[in-house]
Amino acid sequence: MNPVLFIGALLGFLSVAIGASVEHLIRPNVEPEVFRWTMTAIRYHQIGALVVLALGLALVAGVPHQLAKWLKISAGLFALGTVLFSFSIYAAAITGIEQLTYITPVGGSVLMLAWISAAWGALRYATDRN
């Protein structure tokens, strides 16, 4: 089993399940501003899920070892960043404890590191081939 592919698929499933729940259960019970930032969390969640899934597919396709190393690091960072970013917002919306959103910027920073690690892997792969 490819754990990256599994995590991407699980994140994707959760993004749809949580998105539907937010729309039908949370929207009628929260302020419009809370609903707005919850929808931002869902958007980031869905993007993170797709990126992790794509990285998992790339790993299944069989990329060179040096590139695979960076893709795995990037996938782990994307998964962690998505959970920290989106789930801190979900928890704040459900509980009403807005201090939970203090975790959100940490998740955003981890997501930026994920993009940088993917770019670094691409650069390393390009320079190793030449």
- Tell me the number of strands: 0
Strand content: under 5%
Individual helix count: 4
Element order: H for helix, E for strand: HHHH
Give a nutshell description of this structure:
The protein has 130 residues and is mostly helical. It is built from 4 helices and no strands. Helix content is 85%, strand content 0%.
3D structure, described in words:
With 130 residues, the protein is mainly alpha-helical. It has one domain. It has four helices and no strands. Helix 1 (3-26) runs parallel beside helix 3 (65-95) and helix 2 (32-61) packs antiparallel against helix 3. The protein is elongated, with a radius of gyration of 16 Å. The mean pLDDT is 93.
List keywords for this structure.
elongated; 85% helix; 130 residues; 4 helices; mainly alpha
Structural topology:
Layout lengths: L2 H24 L5 H30 L3 H31 L8 H26 L1
Helix pairs in contact: 1-2, 1-3, 2-3, 3-4
